[in-house]
Amino acid sequence: MKCQIVVLCLSLLWSYVVSETCQTPLGATSKCVSLYDCKELVSAFETRPLPNAVVSFLRQSQCGFEGYVPRVCCGPLPATGPTTTLPPKTTRAPIATGVVDPVNPEDSFPTPQDKCGIDTNGDRIYGGQFTDLDEYPWMVLMGYLTKEGKMSYQCGGVLINKRYALTAAHCVIGEIENAVGKLKSARLGEYDIQTDVDCIDNECAEPYQEIPVMSAHPHPGFVDGKINREDDIAIVRFAQRARYTYFVQPICLVDPNLRLAEGSDVYVAGWGKTLLGTRSPVKLKLGMPIFNRSKCFEKYKKVGAELTEKQICAGGAFAEDACRGDSGGPLMRRRPNGVWESVGVVSFGYGCGRDGWPGVYTSVAKYLPWIKETIRSTNV
Length: 380
Fold this sequence. Notes:
Elements: H1 2-20, E1 21-23, E2 29-34, H2 39-42, H3 52-61, E3 62-66, E4 69-73, E5 139-145, E6 151-159, E7 164-167, H4 175-179, E8 182-188, E9 199-200, E10 203-204, E11 209-218, E12 234-238, E13 252-253, E14 265-270, E15 284-289, H5 293-302, E16 311-315, E17 330-334, E18 340-348, E19 358-363, H6 368-378
Parallel strand pairs: 13-18
Antiparallel strand pairs: 1-2, 2-4, 3-4, 5-6, 5-8, 6-7, 7-12, 8-11, 9-10, 11-12, 14-15, 14-17, 16-19, 17-18, 18-19
């Protein structure tokens, strides 16, 4: 009997050892570890722009997840990756600032529930770092005109119909106007901000749509500089209607009756900071859990921020917060039927990815009446 137990224990131990070993895309035997523990692959983020071959190699290196953090088969990057034939670069048309589309009555309402939140890439394992070309097609990148006359892309947002996007109030008024510039345009269908034509493994996206901003409407209760960033939500109206494509689609607004339980899975995406603290040129994503509300409120109260019932806390583990997304970008949830909805707006946090400190998001559900009324009253 003792002999059988010993054999069983050895068998289980061997299974564990085997499960921890893996083969890198280059064919070498290695260990499956957290991405943060693999210096060889983390070093890939030092390259700007991130080559398509490297993005593909990083995807092939994934061997599972540690909570919401991707695990990778750790090994060196290839000295020379496979080449990808890209189409010739195209010259982007300038923003047609003088063109204003006529009012369309259907833009007075968020997109109907049966026509939004459809991820055109279908089912996949979520929680990895890199998005696919057509993943989260509702993402918006806000462009600001600097004092030097150049465009700077800082905040994020989500498309809620052909004429409107949802973002954070601090992305349209206040300090950002002094530090960066005035909100000028919205970019839709973007993946890599440093390339004209975005391609992965010989699959290329359509050109992004650069649409001038006609007006921005921050919530009237927002006060720039207030430490808790209460009412940090805004509506942006475009001068022209977006054109829906495989890479540009609207997201659904959250069901007003939804109650997010502690531990529920939510996601952020955007062009935020990488593990090295630099801004990513490629759209990133991250899954994380809803954080305990009471504990979150207690934590932020200690640093002088009195949170309200109109805010959501999520993340809280090392490197798991909206640093991977953008201010104004969405906190998203995937419904059981596969449809995506916007449940929050990236607002602020205590540092970036600090262990034990969740990020704070404006609750979309608490502002649904204001969102709908703002769209209706400004679509004139």
